[in-house]
Amino acid sequence: MTDLTRLSAAALAEKLSAGDVSSVEATQAHLDRISAVDGDIHAFLHVSDHALEVASDIDRRRAAGESLGALAGVPLAIKDVLVTTDMPSTSGSKILEGYMSPYDATVVARARAAGLVPLGKTNMDEFAMGSSTEHSAYGPTRNPWDLDRIPGGSGGGSAAAVASFEAPLALGSDTGGSIRQPAHVTGTVGLKPTYGGVSRYGAIALASSLDQVGPVTRTVLDSGLLHDVIGGHDINDSTSLAHAWPSFAAAAREGASGEVLKGLRIGVIKELPDSGFQAGVSESFRAALAAMEAQGAEIVEISAPHFEYGVAAYYLILPAEASSNLAKFDSVRFGLRVDVPGGTVEDVMAATRDAGFGDEVKRRIILGTYALSAGYYDAYYGSAQKVRTLIQRDFDAAFASVDVIATPSAPTTAFKLGEKIDDPLQMYLNDVTTIPANLAGVPGISIPSGLAAEDGLPVGIQFLAPAHEDARLYRVGAALEALLVDSWGGPLLDRAPVLGSNGGSR
Ligand code: GLN
């Protein structure tokens, strides 16, 4: 019998609509898989008690002849940054331990309305600050390719859940790379939409001018299918775009033929320092470009002189916005309250925030408060905003001569747990290729490009397109995916060590 957890969401959806399997069976298979492997992986902070009930309702509606969405009955993992009414939402923080939201994030509401079955909430770096999921207040997630290694971050839980076949689909959020970098290190597909393309309503805010919600999947088509469900204008998000988006699933299907590669102009940034990249990452990147070139794509050297200042600008803008967004965790309105007998209101707030926030969150609040303080505002925050504008102009200039920009999705493959935890700067440098897209608001996708020769771990290639051109990423991503999967003789994840065959690790 087919192992339902190994199917893509698209293939599972077909079986569901053909009546070959029920959503209860598909959901149960994933719950069983979670029981078998999540003790090792720790992708989930909470597994839903209602998943089978929801699945059985979908089965009943299907049997009654109701017309259901393309992904109806397919299980979905949800990053804990997204609030849900039926499961706690902690954003990976102790300050929100056990917090129940009175409303669903728009993307969750849309997923439910489309008949997807929420399986649980996934682990993440506290308030989405990090690149390894080690900053979660609930313990780290492990990479299914090697349990001693990180699954990326901040959305390591979503990526690891999808990579270890605990869920066919997951939702993530990407403020500086938290969808794309975990995809890179786990051999999965992650897409950050155009800023404003997917609602941020109910996504616990990290940095509001950078945050975007998006899909985490095993295939480009699955990403398009999920994006079609969650995307589009939302009156509850003032930065949501009123734009007529095409079907991203249709774009992915269209791209798979490879036709799009003929004459496609792919920009490669000449200033990206080769030296900062692991050899196997650079090799995999160049091999993917060569494969596309062989199909008629043109590789064009472009200049993006300000990208190298992206990390510095981001780590001023992000803490500034985060320090302001996190001010609401004041012991009065949400979550934790630490009582200080005989203390003032300020004493209670200080004790609560001291106990409730982890070190990385405190570091960023302090950095952000400093960057915004009188006398320093122009020198730090003001300068960073100018750099942001220069990066946006670099993109505008580049997209005048190329259709997409390609970069490796991150500088190295998955590093070991503990390796960078005491070195914030090294941790921040993971985001060197992902951050510019957030600063400019343009869409980016990471898809697997292969395994690094030296360590056999997954590598991702990132494509960036102009704002509103997410569909182009689906076409190009699906074209390259088809080429590569063909050359590998099957999906990259088929080569991952098999977890849980006897209930334990590899
Ligand atoms: N690693 C980045 C950071 O720590 C990315 C965060 C994100 O995208 N949520 O800020």
UniProtKB/TrEMBL annotation:
One of its GO terms (molecular function) is ATP binding. One of its GO terms (biological process) is translation. Gene3D superfamilies: Amidase signature (AS) domain. It is an enzyme of class 6 (ligase). Pfam families: Amidase. Keywords: ATP-binding, Ligase, Nucleotide-binding, Protein biosynthesis. InterPro entries: Amidase, Amidase_CS, Amidase_dom, AS_sf, GatA. Transmembrane segments: none annotated. Its EC number is 6.3.5.7. The active site is at residues 79, 154, 178. Residues 25-473 form the Amidase domain. It catalyses: L-glutamyl-tRNA(Gln) + L-glutamine + ATP + H2O = L-glutaminyl-tRNA(Gln) + L-glutamate + ADP + phosphate + H(+). GO terms for cellular component: glutamyl-tRNA(Gln) amidotransferase complex. Belongs to the amidase family. GatA subfamily. Heterotrimer of A, B and C subunits. This is Glutamyl-tRNA(Gln) amidotransferase subunit A. It comes from Microbacterium allomyrinae.
